[in-house]
Amino acid sequence: MAEVARPIVSWGVSARILPGQTESGDLSIVRTFPGGVLVGVVDGLWHGPEAAFACRRAVAVLESHAGESVLSLL
Q1: pLDDT tens digits, residue range 7-51?
Q2: For residues 4 and 21, what is the distance between their CA atoms, to the nearest angstrom?
């Protein structure tokens, strides 16, 4: 019988957009890479489109450099 691959980590996330806003200034990332997993939370200060833009940019950087040192990512 073949062995079934199990995920490295099980996770979930919940988000809520503030009343009157169309986007959240908070995002999360869970990205596996050879030898590990990067788990992060990004909080764009304030709310709305500007905070959401900053969060999307930060998550994009984290995704493309997930296997690097956490210190360098900070």
Answers
A1: 677 888 888 888 888 888 889 999 988 888 999 999 888 778 888
A2: 43
Name the pTM for this structure. 0.77
Nearest CA to 41 out of 54, 59, 23 is that of: 59
CB contact burial 20-43 (16+ within 10 A = b; e otherwise): eeebbbbbbbebeeeeeebebebe
Q: From the CB of residue 70, how many other CB atoms can be counted at a distance below 10 Å?
A: 8
C-beta of residue 63 within 8 angstroms of C-beta of residue 42 = no
Q: Name residue 26's beta-bridge partners.
A: 43
Amino acid at position 47, single letter: H
